[in-house]
Amino acid sequence: MLQWRLKAFAHWLKLEEPKWPNVTYPPINYQDIIYYAAPKKKEQLNSLDEVDPELLLTFDKLGISLNEQKRLTGVAVDVVMDSVSIATSFKEQLSEIGVIFCSISEAIQKHPELVKKYLGSVVPMTDNYFSALNSAVFTDGSFCYIPKGVRCPMELSTYFRINAENSGQFERTLIIAEEESYVSYLEGCTAPMRDENQLHAAVVELVAMRKAEIKYSTVQNWYPGDKEGKGGIYNFVTKRGICAGDHAKISWTQVETGSAVTWKYPSVILKGDYSIGEFYSVAFTNNYQQADTGTKMIHLGKNTRSRIVAKGISAGKSQNSYRGLVRAGKGALNARNFSQCDSLLLGDQCGAHTFPYIEVKNKTAIIEHEATTSKIGEDQLFYCKQRGIDAETAVAMIVNGFAKEVMNQLPMEFAIEAQKLLAISMEGSVG
Amino acid sequence: MLSIKNIHANIDGKQILKGINLEIKAGEVHAIMGPNGSGKSTLSSVLAGREEYEVTEGEVKFLGKDLLSLPAEDRAREGLFLAFQYPVEIPGVSTTNFIKAAVNEKRKYLGQDPLDAVSFLKMMKEKMAMVEINQSLLSRSINEGFSGGEKKRNEVFQMAMLEPKLAILDETDSGLDIDALRIVANGINKLRSSDRAILLITHYQRLLDYIQPDFVHVLYKGKIVKSGTKELALELEERGYDFITEAADMANL
Amino acid sequence: MNATYFKDQFQQLQTENDTVHLAALRAGSFGTFDQKGFPTTKLEEWKYTNISSLFDKEYQISPFTDNPASLAAAIEEIQLPEHTNANVLYFVNGRYEPSLSIIRSTIEELQVMPLLQAASAGFQEIIDQHLGESSVYLKDGIHALNTSFITDAVFIHVAAGKELSHPVYIYHLADAQHQAILTQPRSLVYVSKRAKIQIAETFRTVGTMDSFSNAVMEVVVAQDAFLEYYKLQNDAAHTSQVSSTHIHQTGKSHVHTVTISLNGGLLRNNLNMILDAEGNETHLYGLSLLKGKTHVDNHTLIDNKHPNCFSNQLYKNIADDAATGVFSGRIIVQPDAQKTNAYQSNKNIILSDQATINAKPQLEIFADDVKCSHGCTVGQLDEEALFYLRARGISRELAEVLLLQAFATDIVEQVKIEPLRQHIDTLIQQHLSIQ
Known about the structure:
The complex is a heterotrimer. Chain B is an alpha/beta fold. Chain B is built from ten helices and twelve strands.
């Protein structure tokens, strides 16, 4: 493992930071980042009851009470704080059916053969600047293994939190779904307000075997910085899944409301014949936030299908970009893709941008891309007002309607949280 | 003229036709009726030569030739015409040019010289009057922006122009109001003749009020389960398909 | 090609007639070229088109032809229909040739002259203001190379209120009989207030050696003026081009362009529309029917700087054999450009497994009260339509040709010079039926 890290570090030193995303941020001093900040109370933590009450409060505020969820909805939760996994619930129940759900550090100890086989198999350490950095320094993260034929009976969930000041979070997530298995995985993030910028450079790898399905949902609410754009998380994340077998399916759903700068392209490599990739995204930016997000659908197998629905909402002085690649290789016979990218502008100081890349190398592929840009119409607002609805509520309704197609993809309790987040993020954006 | 023997056909591995037998002679009008999903449109597609359908068993002779071995265009040139249930819109190709190409490709196939512009226009005029279609429709792109009635009228006009031996009219009545239906039916009736056969495929009896068939067949689950004369259609109108399908289901138990 | 060759050539340029502005422009541009060299695929704007490899070989830069008589046949062949009713301008090896050119409009309507003469003929202000302004948008080495070597460029001026009844045909001849050549035509067109001009441009190479044309045209369209611009690319497979057209609408005006690409080696078209006044309207159409190894890259940029502008783009590609079609369309809506309407559509058909389509439709929007959309499709001929035609007795081959022609029709119809439209229609029919 150490050798693997050193190799990654050596490679990282050779790379340059990417300049192509449509975002600007001051240079990051990678020496100043604390790469590992274990929560002080770690050793005493034996059960969830002992988790920092402030942390639990944060979850409560968002309607994601660990206790509640544990009791009522039966979601297995792994909490990763400053890159250290501090608690994983429901482990025993899951292990009975063969599902392994634990921190990746535990997995390295207990399941070295799986980690060795799959870690870095989808996102090689040399993939990009931030993934190389992550490979060198990652501290913890979640690990899931769903054995053949098992339909994971509950949603698996990880909650990430950056707590320490000036720290970076470099977690690593690896999910393996064996043949004919199914898992739905939820990822939530939060960080308290700090004036300094914090760096989040995670890597998520998904492997779906024949007829397996992985549904990966994210609600990202890292601290976006204040109204003047001070502080906030730099969210530079590499997420990628491979449909390694025939009829495999990977579906990414993300609701991005946080972070000062987001740079993230959850992707699917459609290697197996008849495999399916999906990407559903809502990205909301306000104040000085910048988001450059999208996906890559790499069609390699025959009869592969992908669908992209990206909804960008910009407010304040923010910049919101969709960047996506759809590639149908020579062997990807009958590949199909449909992409829909819509932007909604709230206010005249923000920007909404679309950068799709379409590359087709065979005569049986059909690719369709559509993008539109709009603002909330005066007539729509007036109609709401005439029915007694104030502007703020009307805008929230319209925005939620705009994002609905994506929200519908989220598991129920997550969707409610995401809607609340959208509402909170939008506060003050209606002039 | 057309002899269908024990036809079985699949699409995407799913068997739709399970042994159809049908004999049609020149001058006859046959109607194939049946509930939705019984295989009516599959039959017309197989006869016209849609490649997605795979014929697994049986044979079809058309004017003595093995129909199934011919590509779609040669079937058309041999005199088989399919009026589409959903005529395709083709932007950018004018209807007139299209029909001219079709007429002349057929003539070429039959070893005839292409029609010169004057004779072609003369023929157009005649047939336009016959099926009551407007010149303005023909100068537009094929079916583009046509109403449902206009599309079906255009199908009948093409039938008139191509003078087929066998015309298969696939749900030609669907989506038409009563006036449009009458005009379309009138056009078809004018095209009835002793050397031409017509195969009507329809869900409802109402088309048969206007075009009287000599024979009526009921298609159900990929087989013809009952044949009769036009009285059978009236009986269906009165009693619904159930009395036949139930009997067929019983027989299959 | 090595940098020393260009340096030597640059130093040998006859520059005694240069204005102060031109001297500075040249020097700055050569600095840019020297620093950046030829663009590589590492540059975002050149991601899908590799021209740097074309410069592995040696070209002579804009040489004078050694045998003008040998071009006579080509001069006949290149003629566009009804040229006897047109103003005809010739470039030979990238140099404007007044002696061959025929101006049929009156001098009150249209003035065409070598650029260096124009400065002293009262147009210095226009030239100083607009010559080289495309460099603000086209910042790569290949563009700078053209500007560094502005020699024998042409200046075209349409007087205020004059609507030209004769179109302007611009012919580019390249003499590649004895050596591989790099030609760098340059033109500056000024369409004054309320004037109207139709321009059609085409290219032909004589000889079997490679030719590379690095052409730049800058056009200024003033208040209430109207420009139609047509480009027809149908040259041999061993000829390549970077053809940049930079159109600056300085007042409320109307522009209509059509780019037709049939044959050639590697063709890159940059088309910049700078909508620099309220109420501008612009229409961009492009059609590429590609066979063999032809590579066509249409790059459009629409910079909406002011409110109430309208733009519409429709680009279509058909790629057969081992051909590549690229479309990159960029729409920028600046913060002031409220009420912009910008539409873009790119439709592609791939006919062969060796063919490639790359598309990059981009929207960059900084204003909220806008209507912008783009759509892009890559696919094949509609099987349902093919079947419909075949069910009427039309052979598959003919059905395909008919559908391809229909696909092309939307674009060809946009050519408003009737004889030119018919000519292009015929070329397309021939081009499709050889298959």
